[in-house]
Amino acid sequence: MPITLKSDDEIAVMREAGQIVGQALEHIRGMVRPGLNLLEVERFVRDEFKRRGAHETFRNYQPNSSFPPYPSNICISVNEQLVHGIPRDRVLEEGDVVTFDLGATYKGYVGDAAITVPVGKVSAKAQELIDVTEASLHAGIKAARTGKRLNDIRGAIEDTIRPHGFGIVKGYGGHGVGRSMHEEPHVENFRHRSRGPELRNGLVLALEPMVTLGDPDVVTCDDKWTVRTKDGSLCCHFEHTIAIREGREAEVLTLP
Ligand code: MF3
Ligand code: CO
Fold this sequence. Notes:
It is a single chain. This protein is of the alpha+beta class. It is 28% helix and 24% strand. It has 4 helices and 15 strands. Strands 8-7-9-14-15 form a 5-stranded antiparallel beta sheet, sandwiched between helices. Strands 1, 2, 4 and 5 form a 4-stranded antiparallel beta sheet that branches. The protein has a 3-stranded antiparallel beta sheet with strand order 3-12-11, with no helix packed on it. The mean pLDDT is 98.
């Protein structure tokens, strides 16, 4: 599949989809406390999307036939879980680090974003991991300018993370986004040998650095979805959907 560029009208709709996601994530951030049951978050998303006329992008999503359809509207990944955690009857505890990854489809277009949130007081290392992962996302956004290459985004993300000695996960990354959640190009979180495609006006990307405190190797759990670190170390994930604009900084479409 080739890379598609979006018109201004399409980006305007994607901004609406993105805002639904960004606002829902901000609400969820405010819900986080020790004792919060993950199923309360899933119910909030269901009610909020119904209220706003948005479609649950993640539910029943199936990348290929080796996956069962995704059974929820949100991914909630706790501590050593990196991505694609399925909400279940589980209560958050003080010191947990929890990632909420959410997608909405609105008027046919997808917004995709994720935040990692500390539960109560977390260790200094955990807070550093969260801060650096979020900073790497913003470095990637700053590098997303017309005339540059995909490698400039990948390199900006990598260069923010490396000095801290954290792990960068391989095999998962960002992606183009539009009518489908996953479009070309795939956006890894580290520099390649090749410069990659040119960044052009109207290219809409989801950037999503995934960073580990320990070894970057990950495994998939028996539920066929949840991805966690092999060594059980803490990990972190932030994501925004952004639109690349001629001659200026990329627009973040998933702001609250
Ligand atoms: N935001 C994620 C991604 O970009 C999660 C989608 S997985 C799903 O890949 F199954 F939950 F949809
Ligand atoms: Co994504």
